[in-house]
């Protein structure tokens, strides 16, 4: 039986996975728990919490490990984990790293280096681990969760990575046998490509409010039935839903056929009325408002002229190429 490096007052070593729908955190949590309970001979419990099961919705997976014989009576969400796995770095803005124990570990899926991530987020009092799981997933034609599992196994030395490969084969072999080799390769790369930065000696700032905690109470909540942040307005931001790919737009080859706009589910395309060569007014595509783009790439499939192409998202590309929507409000 493996020996846990540290436990809390109830005897648990706790791991919390922070993700969005579509990145595979729910399955990753189950596989991680199986590797600890069956493979390492520990006791434990695993469960996930999520709302609407669609791409972009918040997902949390909770895993508790303990020595055999330890009473398991706590099935509440994990507030102060020893390890946090963040499957999309944009979740850091909503408090995904909150509650990590002093000296704990935060693993972030990011293309930025650990030092730069620490400087930009102010994370301290813990170990920061960074893994470009999105790039690995794209290169290996697999999902982010397999690469993240590799990084998590590197952080949790009491888990056997060889056993995990058997779990991957068992979990995917029946439905997706062709994906087993790719998943194992993504797992191995995640295990070896993690970058570490120890900032446990720096004083940690006050933990931000967790994303699932409401700032409204009985004294300040709006009237019943009122939706204060409707998702169909300019307040919506779907950029966190992108899992590595986005559409690139070449205006020179665009014929303004609007096939992309018809296929787009989120009104990402910005148009402007302009005169054509004969002086007739027509709508001309100006670009994409990436704030509303979740990277589904339906527009790329619909485009007849290859004006839209799929590209691996690069840091700063969406912000520098964004064409903001223009909202015209008419007084009644």
List keywords for this structure.
332 residues, alpha/beta, Pyruvate-ferredoxin Oxidoreductase, domain 3, Alpha-Beta Plaits, 7-stranded mixed sheet, two-stranded antiparallel sheet, 11 strands, globular
Instruction: Report the portion of residues in β strands.
Output: 15-25%
| CATH class value of the largest domain | Alpha Beta
| Counted beta strands | 11
Ranges where pLDDT stays below 50 over 5 or more residues in a row are: 207-213
Task: Please give a structural write-up.
The protein is an alpha/beta fold. The chain has two domains: 13-198, Pyruvate-ferredoxin Oxidoreductase, domain 3; 239-321, Alpha-Beta Plaits (2-Layer Sandwich). It is built from nine helices and eleven strands. The strands form three sheets. It has a seven-stranded mixed sheet with strand order 2-3-1-4-5-6-7, sandwiched between helices. Helix 2 links the parallel strand 5 and strand 6. The longest helix is centred in the first third of the chain and has 15 residues, at 25-39. The radius of gyration is 23 Å and the shape is globular. Residues 207-213 have low confidence and may be disordered.
